[in-house]
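Box 4.2: Ligand-aware structure prediction
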Amino acid sequence: MQAFREDQRDKNGIMPFEARHLDAADEQAVVRYFSGLKFHPATQVVETANVPMMHWRGFVLVPDKSGTRELIGNRIIETPENFTLYDLDDERTEFIAYVPPGSIQRGAAIAARGIGTAVSCESCHGAELHGVGDIPYLAGRSPTYIVRELILFRLGKRTNPGAAPMHAEVAHLSLKDMIDVAAYAASLRP
Ligand code: HEC
């Protein structure tokens, strides 16, 4: 929240606006509330060479009625299992994340041992990416979110001082590395 408020994250986005309109007491209240919730991962990771063709419906991708499939290539395609539940903001909504074949295993190696000059993710984010202190857990989170944030670090769009270790890390990752490690992280359970 502090990074958003100080325009060090998502500058010109919705969150800085939101963060600047919370006073300190409100902020403490939301911090207490959210940190007390139990995290239920909602994304199932599926490796596949072919994905259903998708189109946007509101904020999410949904399969075309035609049932046509196409090559996944170097992408993650995330979609709600049941659009009606999603559209009703039902908390039981589950998501499927299609990822390229082999990405989970390759991502596991990056997380455990690093790649090239990038250090292992687990050395900071903890065993099984369960988080350590204020270094966030990655296990079970949406792989689309993880890749998006890695790209934002790479583009210099998260500039709070706490993000410095990630700038060094992402400089050594290709888009494929990011996709693989995100697929692995999302496949884990907290
Ligand atoms: C040297 C320590 C270090 C290493 C190595 C590291 N991270 Fe991080 N990571 C951090 C810190 C610290 C943060 C919190 C940044 C902040 O507060 O802005 C973070 C944040 C993140 C976030 C943002 C999470 C969120 O909630 O927005 C993602 C995604 C992430 N790291 C992925 C990775 C991946 C994947 C790897 C391995 C390829 C990795 N990190 C390696 C220290 C590290």
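In the box above, the bound molecule is heme C. The pocket of heme C is lined by residues 110, 118-119, 121, 123-125, 135-136, 138, 146, 149-150, 158, 160, 162-163, 165-166, 169, 173, 181 (CB under 6 Å).
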